Amino acid sequence: MIARMKKYLAILLLLLAALMPAPRLHALAAQEGTYAVAVGQVWFYASADEPLFLLPESYYVRVLERGETYCTVEYLTDDAPYKKLFGYCRTDALTFVDFVPERPYLRKQITVTYTLPDAGGLGTEDFTTYERTFVYYGDRYEGEQLYLYVLSEDTFGYIPADAPPEFERNTDYLTSASGETETPSEASPSVNAVQIVVIVLACVAAVAVAVILLRGKKPPREQQEF
């Protein structure tokens, strides 16, 4: 009888454990690291006094170490033709998020056509023009001139441009930054009315089993006084 009741108690405990809400798998930020998005003008630095380029707006850096003034960050990945770039961003310029973005880095290639000057009219068209493809990282201005920070094979550098390249913006950080609450369907699973009833019934059953077990035990016989 007691063994059977213990079995029932174990089943009830397992049932209660199954009904408890599981922890939400929210972006795996602890495993994947912290990300911060570039909202507005956010510089990517090679060192504290060497700004390289402005990050593409709405894209992210992965924060390796967060400091009071600067964060050590990485941008892009080692996936040819792309190459991971390590550097720094000002902490107060970054907007930190608590999720792992699906599209953290801008993967953008640009093709530039170069035309050599025609000297004397004898230039052959196939020889005077050629194209070259670069990986785009960001841009900066020097005076009125726009420069794009790019990668060609294993070499980083700047090329002049008339306008920055067009690219699609991220919007996933807007919900996180605005502090909007999630809808019930997106939120972590909660205990609904049916679960509450089941839990209450399980608790009542557990109490009843405990009472039966206690009543089944005979109290110690009082010693008779002589």
Structure description:
The chain has about 230 residues and is α+β, with helices and mostly antiparallel strands. It contains five helices and eleven strands; from the N terminus they run H-H-E-E-E-E-E-E-E-E-H-E-E-E-H-H. The chain has helices spanning about 1-20, 30, 125-130, 170-180, 195-215, and strands at about 35, 45, 50-55, 60-65, 70-75, 85-90, 95, 110-115, 130-140, 145-150, 155-160. A five-stranded antiparallel β-sheet has the order 6-5-4-1-7. Strands 8-9-10-11 form a four-stranded antiparallel β-sheet. A two-stranded antiparallel ribbon has the order 2-3. Strand 9 and strand 10 (about 145-150) form a beta hairpin. Helix 1 (about 1-20) packs antiparallel against helix 5. It is elongated. The two termini are about 35 Å apart. The model is unreliable at about 20-30, about 180-190 and about 220-225 (pLDDT under 50).
Architecture blueprint of SSEs:
Elements: H1 2-19, H2 29-32, E1 34-37, E2 43-47, E3 50-54, E4 60-66, E5 70-75, E6 85-90, E7 95-97, E8 108-115, H3 125-128, E9 129-142, E10 145-152, E11 155-161, H4 172-178, H5 193-216
Antiparallel strand pairs: 1-4, 1-7, 2-3, 4-5, 5-6, 8-9, 9-10, 10-11
Sum up the structure in keywords:
226 residues; alpha+beta; 11 strands; disordered C terminus
Outline:
The chain is of the alpha+beta class and 226 residues long. It has helices at residues 2-19, 29-32, 125-128, 172-178, 193-216, and strands spanning 34-37, 43-47, 50-54, 60-66, 70-75, 85-90, 95-97, 108-115, 129-142, 145-152, 155-161.
